[in-house]
Amino acid sequence: MGEPHPKLETTDLSRTFGRGSAAVDALGPLDLTVAPGEFVCIVGPSGCGKSTLLRIAGGLLRPSTGELAIRTSSPRPAAMIFQDYGIYDWKTVLANVRFGLDIQRVPRREANARARDWLARMGLADFASAYPATLSGGMRQRVAIARALAVEPEILLMDEPFAALDAQLRTILQDELLDLTQTTRTTTLFITHSLEEAIVLGDRVLVMSARPGRIIAERRPPFPRPRSGDVRSAPEFTTLKSELWELLRPEAVPA
Ligand SMILES: Nc1ncnc2c1ncn2[C@@H]1O[C@H](COP(=O)(O)OP(=O)(O)OP(=O)(O)O)[C@@H](O)[C@H]1O
Ligand SMILES: [Mg+2]
C-alpha cells in the first residue's frame, strides 16, 4: 500500500493582491501536503502570506494560480480559527460556540450541551451568557477556539490561535491541544510565530520565506507520539529551536 492521499494538498499555489503596478505578490508558488491525522506547523516572518494561505485552505479566498484539494470523508467542514478571532459581538459566548453546530443543524439541546462542554474545557463555564465585549482578549480567543473545536472538524486550520494569551495560559492550551489532537487524530494546519509552539505541537515544522512566502525548509521534531509538554525541556528541543531560528532569521530581517 502506498501513502494515503493527503487530506489537504496544494499544487503550485500562489496569490497576488491587486493588479498592475499596485500588485502585491503575497504567497507562493507553494506545494504543501497534510496527511490524514498529521499536525503541520508553519512558521514564517510577518507579512509572508501565512494568513493568506490559511484563508485559501479554508475556502475564504481564491488562489491566483494553482490548486487546492481538500479530501474529507464526511460533510463536516474544515474549521478555521482566525488570527483576529472572528467572533460575533452581538451573540452570547454560548451562541458563538454553538454557531458551527447551528449551521450543521445539530438539535438545540445537543448543541447547547456540546458548546457548554467546550466552554468548560476552555475555563469559560461561568461566561456562557456573557457577551464577548465584556471578556478579556485571551478569553475571546478561547471562545474562538471552543467554537472551532465544537464542530469536531476533520481538518483544523489555526492561524496563531494562542497569540493573544499570556505565557502560562498559552502553555496550558498547547498541552490541551496536544492531548486533544493525539486523541482525535485531527488533521491540523497550524500557523504560529513561536518556534517553541511549532516544535511542541508539530509532526512537521515548515519554514516560509519572506513574501511571497514559499516553503524553504522542513524539520520533523524528533519526539514520538503520544508526546507531552515535557519535550520542552529535552536537549533536542533546544537544538531544533536554534536550527529553525537560523533558517528563519535571514527571512525575518526587514527588506
Ligand atoms: N486583502 C488583501 N488585499 C491586499 N493585500 C493583502 C490582503 N491580504 C493580505 N495582503 C498582503 O499580503 C501579504 C501577506 O499577508 P498575510 O496576512 O497573509 O501575512 P502573514 O504571514 O499572515 O503576516 P502576520 O504574521 O503578520 O500575520 C501582506 O503584504 C499583506 O499586506
Ligand atoms: Mg497572519
From TrEMBL:
InterPro entries: AAA+_ATPase (IPR003593), ABC_transporter-like_ATP-bd (IPR003439), ABC_transporter-like_CS (IPR017871), ABC_transporter_ATP-bind (IPR050166), P-loop_NTPase (IPR027417)
Location of the ABC transporter domain: 8-235
Molecular function per GO: ATP binding; ATP hydrolysis activity
Keywords: ATP-binding, Nucleotide-binding, Transport
SUPFAM superfamilies per the UniProt record, alphabetical: P-loop containing nucleoside triphosphate hydrolases
A matching Pfam family: ABC_tran
PROSITE patterns: ABC_TRANSPORTER_1, ABC_TRANSPORTER_2
Name of this protein: ABC transporter ATP-binding protein
Classification lineage: Bacteria, Bacillati, Actinomycetota, Actinomycetes, Kitasatosporales
